[in-house]
Amino acid sequence: MTDTMRALTVALALLLCLPAAAAEEEGAAWMHEAHIDLGNRASLQRGAKYYVNYCLGCHSARYVRYSRVGTDLGIDSQQLATNLMFTADKPQQTMDIAMPPADAKRWFGRTPPDLSLVARSRGPDWIYNYLTTFYLDPGKPWGVNNLVLPNAAMPHVLWELQGTQRALFREEKDAAGHAHPVFERFEPVAQGRLTAEQYDGVVRDIVNFLAYVGEPGQLERRSLGLRVLAFLGVLFALAYALKKEFWKDVH
Asked: For the whole model, what pTM was predicted?
C-alpha cells in the first residue's frame, strides 16, 4: 500500500468515527433508547389511537392519509371512521388538524410543527426521551420544562397519564471553572393514571407510530426484502449444486 493510499484510509476511518463521536457528545447519560418494533401491528394500532387522541389536536401528519394508515395497520373502514377520523370526512384525506394555524400560534407562541417526518429528522430515541422528560418548572408559561428540548412551547399533554415529576440537578464546574447544572434524576410529585411501566408502553407506541408515519412504505419494503433474501438463498443453493455437478469430473 502506498503512503497516499494509507493516508486516505486513515482519513476515511476518522470521518466515519466523527458522527458517532458527535452523537455521543450531543447525547446524555440519562437518555434511553426507544426500542420500537415496526413489525408489532398491535403497537402501531395503539400508537395511532394515542396520537389521534393526544397529539392530533395540535400536530398534523399531513403527509399520510387515513386510508393508508387503515390499510397498513389492518384497521377496517368502520373502525377508522369511528376511532381515528376526527378531523376528516373521507379516508382519502390526510391527517390534518382542525385548529386554525393563527389560533395555534397565538396560544403557543408558534405554530405547532407537522410531525409526519419528525422520526426521520430527530430519530425515535429523541421523541421517546422528549415525551418522558417533562418536569415541573413554575417559571414557564405551562408550568413545565423539558430536558431534551429546554423551554419548549408545548405543554405536557400526557401529564394525566404520567403524572408530574420534578427534576433534580447538581452543580458541576467545567474546565474554565464555571458552574453549570447537570441533571441527576427525577423525583415523582403526583401519580398519573398509569404506572411508570404502562406510561412507558404508551410512549413507545406513539414513537412506533411516528416512525411508521415517517415512511409508510417501509413496512412493505421490509417484508419484500425478506422474501428477496429467501429467494436469493434458494437460488444460491441451486447454483452451488449446479456448479458441483458441472465440475465433479474435473480433476
From this structure: 0.78
